Amino acid sequence: MLTSEQAFNAMSVFVERYYTRTGGAGDMGSLLGGIQINPADGSPFDPAISEDWADAVKAVLEHRIASD
Fold first, then answer.
1. Which pLDDT belongs to residue 24?
2. Rounded to whole angstroms, how far apart are CA atoms 47 and 61?
3. Which of 52, 45, 62, 50 is nearest to 22 (CA)?
4. Distance between the two ends of the chain, CA-based, in angstroms?
């Protein structure tokens, strides 16, 4: 479970990596569309989003562990 601070940090890492990956060309509408949950299967419409989110959470948790 993430604390509120960790969740915020993970979101920040996630959005920054999205921006970098798209060369700054990815717009907020595309990101928001990709993270919407498909009611048919419960997964994000953009299948890469789940892995990107997991990587962002991992980065935040590893930073916390490294700084403890």
1. 86
2. 23
3. 52
4. 17
